[in-house]
């Protein structure tokens, strides 16, 4: 079975080696045909604490790292504005 790969925005990076990523998706209701927005938060492993709030990242499903972490960051798609000033 392939691993899940999700893309979302970092909304929290306070904890050590962990970031919280908000995943938003849209789908159509099967009966009413209305477009519904769905949001879910995932905790992902960030080994070097290099991601900040506002970064757009891609996360991949892994074996459980801790009680709440089952994803790890594989790449950053877009840095936040604060990070671009330092690069």
Structural class: mainly beta
Along the chain, the helix and strand elements come as EEEEEH
Distance between the termini: 38 Å
The whole-number mean of residue pLDDT values reads 93
Q: Which spans have pLDDT < 50 for at least 5 consecutive residues?
A: none
What's the alpha carbon Rg, rounded to whole Å?
Answer: 15 Å
Number of discrete helical segments: 1
Number of strands: 5
State which percent range the strand residues make up: over 45%
What level of helicity do the residues show?
A: under 10%
Specify the biggest β-sheet.
Answer: 5 strands, mixed, barrel
Sheet with the most strands: spatial strand order: 1-2-3-5-4
Shape: globular
Description:
The structure is a single chain. With 87 residues, the chain is mainly β. It is 5% helix and 51% strand. The chain has a 5-stranded mixed beta barrel. The longest helix has 4 residues. It is globular, with a radius of gyration of 15 Å.
């Amino acid at each position: 079975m392939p691993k899940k790969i999700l893309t979302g925005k970092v909304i929290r990076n306070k904890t050590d080696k962990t970031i919280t990523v908000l995943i938003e998706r849209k789908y159509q209701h099967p009966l009413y045909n209305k477009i519904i927005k769905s949001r879910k938060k995932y905790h992902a492993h960030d080994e070097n604490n290099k991601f900040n709030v506002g970064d757009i990242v891609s996360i991949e499903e892994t074996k459980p790292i801790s009680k709440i972490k089952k994803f790890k960051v594989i790449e950053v798609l877009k840095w936040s504005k604060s990070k671009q000033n330092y690069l």
